[in-house]
Write a structure and sequence with these properties.
Length: 374
């Protein structure tokens, strides 16, 4: 009986994957999970197929993702399969209902902590610039802060609310909390090279202290290094870039590089936006390009920076991407280009850089990768 069920599920998986034509369909990974009672993985995998069909409720696949973990165990293979279900693109019909991309707006789903803060893929025919799918990839690597938020909220907060529709667990439509602002954020994000890890701009703006604008207006023109340190120590302090004409508004556009962020080991160094207003809900990241991209987007979304400041940020972001480094020099490079040379990159007070041995190993790895590509 078990063998027959497995065979039938295998046929169904082959059919679905051929129909969808997408490598990210997670059904095979679910069926391969080594956990739960005999036959449970095959049963869950077979049931999950229907969750990815166009007519399925968008919240169903998040409930299924939770089921994968609760019934098949919390092993690495189960978590990976469940994440695959969260990110999976539903097989929508481009010729029906305007190819609407429904996304779950139930803030309680998924319930499994390891699955929170990850956004789904949508049809590339709708996401023509790849912004939503880039956000899905970056949030899979570094989940967003989803406290009290649905995956729909996270996409809207990132500025791409005009590409998706919110749907509750009963199939009802849910409007974006930001209303017309969602479209405006999308436009701003595109203008500023919108991509991977945009943060929760709406909530960050709401939380920005009313006195911030005043502080910005009266702040003395201290040295960039002093300003960077002030921002790190006081959180809401704003400061003046050493680059003439660049006004960063409510934010100090510096990034940190330090160990132990986000409950990571003290030996694991990541990048992060220092200014809490600019940071919003953005999580720390191993990849500096995620952080620089999010920061540049926030200059439009919440910081009220002028165009000269936005252009300067994009220049710094490009230089970081070209440098390809992942150490203190990376944060120093970005901070220097935006006019805050000498800003403290380890405000928590730990080591200011990765150990020399680790840095050497990273350089050797990059060299091997370059040789391989050559």
């Amino acid at each position: 009986m078990f063998a027959t069920k497995t065979f039938l599920v295998a046929i169904a998986i082959a059919y679905v994957e051929a129909r969808f034509g997408q490598e990210q369909v997670p059904i095979s990974a679910i069926g391969a999970v080594q956990g739960g009672s005999p036959g449970a993985a095959a049963t869950v995998a077979g049931a999950a197929i229907s969750d990815l069909l166009g007519a399925a409720n968008s919240c169903a696949k998040l409930t299924r993702a939770d089921q994968i973990v609760t019934e098949l165990g919390g092993g690495a293979d189960a978590i990976a399969a469940a994440i695959g279900m969260v990110t999976a693109e539903k097989n929508t019909n481009p010729f029906v209902n305007g190819n609407v991309q429904n996304v779950c707006a139930d803030a309680t789903l998924p319930k499994t902590p390891e699955l929170r803060g990850i956004t789904p893929l949508i049809d590339p025919a709708v996401d023509v610039k790849g912004d939503v799918n880039a956000l899905s990839a970056s949030s899979k690597a570094a989940p967003l802060d989803a406290t009290g938020k649905s995956v729909f909220d996270l996409i809207v907060d990132a500025g791409f609310g005009d590409l998706v529709k919110g749907q509750d667990a009963t199939g009802g439509a849910v409007a974006a909390a930001g209303g017309a602002g969602a479209g405006a954020n999308a436009a701003g994000g595109a203008a500023g090279g919108a991509a991977p890890a945009a943060s929760a701009s709406a909530s960050a703006e709401a939380q920005a202290p009313a006195s911030s604008a005043t502080a910005c207006a009266v702040a003395p023109a201290a040295t960039p290094a002093a300003n960077g340190a002030a921002s790190a120590n006081t959180g809401n302090a704003t400061s003046v870039s050493s680059v003439a004409g660049a006004d960063f508004g409510l934010c100090t556009p510096t990034i940190s590089f330090q160990g132990g962020e986000g409950n990571r080991p003290a030996t694991e160094f990541t990048f992060q936006i220092i200014d809490p207003v600019a940071r919003g809900g953005q999580g720390e990241a191993l990849n500096p390009n995620i952080i620089t991209n999010a920061l540049c987007n926030q200059l439009t979304n919440v910081c009220k920076a002028n165009q000269a400041a936005k252009d300067l940020c994009l220049n710094a972001k490009a230089q970081v991407a070209a440098a390809g480094t992942r150490n203190k020099s990376t944060a120093d490079l970005f901070n220097s280009v935006v006019g805050f040379a000498g800003a403290v990159t380890n405000p928590a007070g730990g080591p200011d850089d990765v150990p020399a041995a680790a840095a050497a190993a990273a350089r050797a790895l990059r060299l091997r990768a370059l040789e391989f590509r050559a």
